[in-house]
Amino acid sequence: MRGPLGRFTHPTEVPVEEKPRDEADKETGVVDNQPRNSETDSDPDSIDHNAQAGVQKIEATTKVWSKSHLIMAYAFIWIIYFVDSMQQGMSSLLTPYVTSAFALHSLTATTGVMSGIFGGVSKLTLAKILDIWGRPQGFLFVVLLMTVGLVMMAACNNVETYAAAQVFYWVGYNGISYSLSVFIADTSHLKNRGLMLAFISSPYIITVWITSPMAQSVLYGVGWRWGFGIFSIITPIMCLPLFFLFTWNYHKAKKAGLIVYTPSGRTFWQSFKYYFWQFDVICLVMVSGGFALFLLPFNIYSYQYYGWRDPLTICLIIFGGLLLIGAVVWERFFAPVKFMPWELLKDRTVLGACILSAVLFVEYYIWTAYFSSFLQVVLNLNVTQTGYINNIYSLGSCFFSFIVGFAIRYTGRFKWVALYFGVPVTILSIGLLIHFRQPGTHLGYIIMCEILYAFAGGACVIAEQIAVMAAAAHQHVAVVLAMEGMFSSVGGAIGGTISAAIWTGTFPQALAKYLPPESQANLTEIYSQLPVQLSYPWGSPTRNAIIQAYGDGLRWMFVAATAITGLGLVATVVWRDIKVTNLKQVKGRVF
């Protein structure tokens, strides 16, 4: 059975293997060990006929398109990122009000757990779609999913529907971001890829000034439902031009004879069975369901009558664990085509970068889930001001990523960026917030820590993505990026779970401890609704008690985030110090 990962079932084909390095270079990137024909060997720009169909199609596309079409593609990608970043920034500010509308503000972090799991695990499936069917087809599929999610969020009538909509939305949103990252990898030289990744993330520098006023205008104008509804119309309109551009050039390559269509000869039922095994649906269901069932109790245990001892809580943990164990057994002994590309994970650079990605998302979602609520309740900021503070990371990391991109292009190395700057400064900035997050702190200290965190984040993200791509051949780029994305999304789900567990375990108890007697009867409303928390006047005994309770809850979030980030240093140390200057990974007309 042949697919994008089918080669891993053949012992003679090992895509990642460390070979002796040239003494002139400390360590070089991984070369592809697939057998070559004489034409490929003589012409390094010829299409690799041993690669998957999707890889062959994009290599043919880049050989026939013009310079103007290449520039147009990057312009379309920039516009898509602009729209998506604007929508996502507004959505993060609206989510606490959506959950509060259903009197469940404490589930703000929980709504993202399921979507994070499915959004991450689905990337490996999307990688197979991109490699088997083609880049444009996979891109169109995730655009459709994101649009469905936005429509569902606009029409939801309870938090359960909103959480389900988040699954569709984040699978689509992460899929679009991932697909565009693969496009960038397909159309840029490795030494310039850091700059290209910085370029496509640059819309955040603009949208940080737009999303906050937009969210406030939506909340006090048309309502949060239309905030999602508007983008359910705009998103597909902005994404379709890129799809048509790639499709046009694909047909151009087909007419030029660079792509020869070969019918599979399979019937519908045979094709169904073929793709069922190629996508390893059984493992996909077990991994997604296992993570969801295992992590969910940590978010909702406080809503159960007996808490941790409640039968529902215990059953979810047990069945979730059994599904995850079952997924491992299935992959090890029974799966015809492996869901996880284990051979690629044996490469220490790939594995280290994936672990760093997971660690960064775990710590980020631990302390940011309730941070926007903290800014409004504890520091008395409005929605617009809160959005500006939240967006410091987007602004700073995107700005600094250009500096990182130039540094990697100049030095030809990327490991030092993360090891000596990115991870250590991330630990420093979160550690400082353990102290500065307390009630009564000056806003300037919060901003200082956010700026440090943003610069470090920009360095880490670019370095980890270059690391996984530099360690693989072109036909494996989609897979390693999918693994990096899966680790980050599952890490985000774990971080959201830890955050919700800390919040539900500390905040209500702190409220019961600090609230004055006249407000004790309203404890449940205060706990579950952000607008109720904000309704108490600034300086009143009840507002001061709520502020004190926030301080107790966030303290342990920052402590946990700082401790976990230390693992990122270990993950970065094991990277190979690959020199990317002269590595040729892509073909055709590229940047």
Characterise the protein shown here.
This protein has 591 residues and is mostly helical. It is built from 23 helices and no strands. Helix 4 (111-132) packs antiparallel against helix 20 (477-514). Residues 1-42 have low confidence and may be disordered.
Tags for this model:
single chain; mainly alpha; 0% strand; 23 helices; 591 residues; 73% helix
Alpha carbon gyration radius: 24 Å
Distance between the termini: 35 Å
Series of secondary-structure elements, N-terminal to C-terminal = HHHHHHHHHHHHHHHHHHHHHHH
Number of extended strands: 0
Roughly what fraction of the amino acids lie in strands? under 5%
Q: What summary fits the major beta sheet?
A: none
pLDDT average, as an integer? 77
TL;DR?
By secondary structure, this protein is an all-alpha fold. 73% of the residues lie in helices and 0% in strands.
Outline the fold blueprint.
Layout: H1 38-42, H2 53-64, H3 67-101, H4 111-132, H5 135-155, H6 159-186, H7 190-201, H8 203-219, H9 224-255, H10 268-278, H11 281-300, H12 311-334, H13 342-345, H14 348-368, H15 371-377, H16 383-390, H17 392-411, H18 415-436, H19 443-470, H20 477-514, H21 523-528, H22 530-535, H23 541-573
Helix pairs in contact: 2-9, 3-6, 3-8, 3-9, 4-5, 4-6, 4-11, 4-20, 5-6, 5-9, 6-20, 7-17, 7-19, 8-16, 8-17, 11-12, 11-20, 14-19, 14-20, 14-23, 15-16, 17-19, 18-19, 18-23, 19-20, 20-23
